[in-house]
Amino acid sequence: MNAYDAVVVGGGHHGLVAAIELADHGRQVLLCESRPEVGGAVADRTIGDFVVDEFSAFHPLAAASPVIQGLGLDKHGLQWARSERVVAHLGRPDDTSGALLHADPTHGGPSGRGRSG
Q: Is residue 16 helix, strand or coil?
């Protein structure tokens, strides 16, 4: 039987950081995640021909975090994906134009909002 100093429940970004920090300090850690992949809010899935995020609006906060940067995850293959169009919103199911929020606040007018297309 394995002995663990800590059990971390949830493989989202907070759980992963907690598990890594504990392991880096010599603890035996068991990380439990119910989904087939870790990542939590910083995850995506494919629906038809589209790749959609699952709450990855949080990832800019992780990318800017000194703790995340200190883990050196880029050395293990982490690549941050950025888009010029950071948020899109359709008003109705039949909406074919929608509204876009661009990374450049001057794009699309003073509010930073532009129409798709």
A: helix
